[in-house]
Amino acid sequence: MKKQKKIVEFPNLKQRLLEKAMLTMKEKKFSEALELFEQARENEYAYAEVELGMVVCYMELGQLTEARNRCKKMLREDIGDYFHVLQIYITILIQLKEYAEVKTTIEAILEEDKVPAQYAQNFYQLLEFARKMLPSEDAQTEQFEPDYGQSNDQVDELFMLHEGSVQKQYELIQVLKHRNIRPLIPQIERYVKDELKHPVLKTFLLHILKEQGWDKEMEVVKMGQHITIIPSNLYSGEEDPFLNKIISILEDKVESDNPTLFEGLKEMLVRIHAVQFPLPFVPDKPEVWAAGLHSAGVDLFGLGVEDEELAEEYHVSALEVKSVVREINKLEDFSYLRL
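The chain above was modelled as a monomer; its predicted structure follows.
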């Protein structure tokens, strides 16, 4: 009777299989990468990394429903970094236009009051976006109004604006969007000149002033810089020709090859603009900012590309790209609430 041959695996086979899958994904061969991730999954190696890699591949292949279902399973079974997976899940829901699910999911997370600071601001912004995309927004915003004890008491509101937590300040500012804020102008002027106040919350206040047509000069202090503006004259993000030029360049360079990355870069631009507004972007070269966003984005998505290669593609210098990437990283850090 013949003895059965013992099957011996090559050393580090599982690890090399995962590395090959990751490399193939970086080369944008998503179908091939998906097959490699499937093999790694069968070998039960680095389960969280494999599952997340498969989610990214399904996203890139346009199989958003499959990506969503796998992400939801990861969240339900607590596989991988919960909040990182949650961000990807919400991104997929937005691409699927499932705004009600975005709203329900984020509200449930925020109610638990355990969101890490580096994720909180992005979740608030995504929640605000989802609410805007849903019908009957006025009724929903009214339900979101925080209970300040005496919500109509102006003195209590002023306390929350200047002394409340960042989250309470945010909640109050959302309520003020639906009110005449002219009686609060002196307090708002004090707020936007206070270097210690959150730069994104200052942006929200300036947008309210713009929407309500406030046409008097106002001094704003942000990121150590002083600027005098007239709120009614400011561009919103959608109107800003500089931002639109950046997006147009990214459309040409990124969208057709990698639509998911393109959407991620637009979201990053919205976040850093929320910090920077109304300060101008320096240098005043949209090609440099487009290249910098591309560089920061591929690092985030794990699709490594050298700055020198991007500099050549965007016809700018590698030094300019590195400088702008540092600025983008700084602005990204400021875009998060410190709860």
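Residues 1-11, 137-153 have pLDDT under 50 and may be disordered.
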